[in-house]
# Entry
Amino acid sequence: MRLSNADAEGMYQETRVQNEVAILTLASAALRHIKPNIVPRVFGWGGASQGRLGWILQDLMPGVPLDNVFSPTASLEQKTAVLRQMAAILKALQDYPLPKSIQGWGGLTFDSNGAIVSAPMPSVGAGPWSSLENSYRGRLKAALDKADKNPYLKGWRPNDIRDRVDDFIERGLSAQFSDLTSSHDRAIIHADFTSDNLLHDPATGLVTALLDYDFSTILHPAYEFFRSFSPNGGRFTGWIADSDPEGQELLELRRAKLTGKFPSPLPTPRETPNGPGVDWELAQAWENELQRINVKRPSTIQGIDKLADVDELLGSLTPWRLINTDFLRMNTDEGQRMALRRMGEEQLVAVLDHLGF
# Structure
């Protein structure tokens, strides 16, 4: 029995459970050919309402976390075996034909006849939208509304940064979609498709569950690469400053993903202040598995680089460490908060400079 947390930061409670159940329904159909069954079956559910928690009664899935498979001591062969299964899952989610009742971009719910239809995106509380561009326009405005209410961000109005953001939304946003020839494509997006949300059977090596559909949505296939695959070097980022060795390495990885061609020989991983650098062998193995079965990926999505830049701007508008109330509650040092504010502004200004605004 899963109970929706009414205090979860930034979650739209009105359709949160409905969205998850609808996505579970679609994912179950898309992945029915994969054995063992990896999508939890739903036996009952109830949406949240005034004074009542939402809930889902679903399968308790077998298997153990994938931590040991992606540990530094595991062999590349072991990791590749799991990556091969992850690629097959992603391919099936991308290829599944959505019901005609789903007309928009964003979240899902059920109509009075039980059909799955478009709804607000639970992680935003806005939508659905009539196009991918409108989904980003709506989410940028929602992020600015959140920044308006934040005492540290103050809507990014100091130093005239807000004017620059508004100008980009008004004059620059549409141009970022001009090269995206597949802008009408939509797919089931898990949006947290990482090893943390996969279980496997150590005896057989088979993935036994894909879990946690809290952030799942219907968006362009590129969006999965903006939100998922981070532990195996598979996440695709927007513009990256290359002013330090860490940034230079990430930029090199971005180029490799964008072209589908990795350096030969592979670079030596760099140790960074934030921990180990890029695991180039693992990142290349993931790319190879995607190529092997022709999964839609950064190197095949024309215009994904400009779309990723918009997504980078979106993330920069609401720095998590200044927005999340739990983090702020645990970190009360005002000096540190102001330092985070300065870092956030530097990042946002750098993205705006890159976009030409």
